[in-house]
Structure formats: structure tokens, C-alpha cells
């Protein structure tokens, strides 16, 4: 199963898409992207929870939109 986070789903004007096979890695990648692209060096637990609430998942072979 692949997890996907998109910045636009949390209201940020950004075409960023982050994918991972596990939640821990996905959150680490989101934090890195937030720091490097959006100048948000530290994600609060509230931001992490909000990001998690927008994550979608797909199984191999499912078409992407």
C-alpha cells in the first residue's frame, strides 16, 4: 500500500506530492518538504495530525489521479 500526501489538500498552494510505503517515513518526508520548501522548520503535533488526516492510500495497480 502506498500512502500519499499532497500540500494542496491542507490548503497550501503547492504542487508537492509525497509518497511512501509507511507512515513514519511519509511524515519525515513531509517535515523535510515543509522545512525546505515552505520555511516551516518544525511541525507541531497539530500540523502532523492534520497532515495525517489528509493522507490517501492506494494499492499497487490502482490508477493515480
How does this structure look, described?
This protein has one domain. The model has no long low-confidence stretch (mean pLDDT 93). It has helices spanning 23-38, 45-54, and strands spanning 2-6, 17-20, 56-58. Strands 2-1-3 form a three-stranded antiparallel β-sheet, covered by helices on one side. By secondary structure, the protein is an alpha+beta fold.
Helix percentage range? 40-55%
Number of strands: 3
Major sheet attributes: 3 strands, antiparallel
Distance between the termini: 16 Å
Number of domains: 1
Give average pLDDT, whole number.
Answer: 93
Report low-confidence residues grouped into runs of 5 or more. Answer: none
Shape: globular
Strand order of the largest sheet: 2-1-3
Structural class by SSE content: alpha+beta
Strand content: 15-25%
Count of helical stretches: 2
Order of SSEs: EEHHE
**Global Rg:** 12 Å
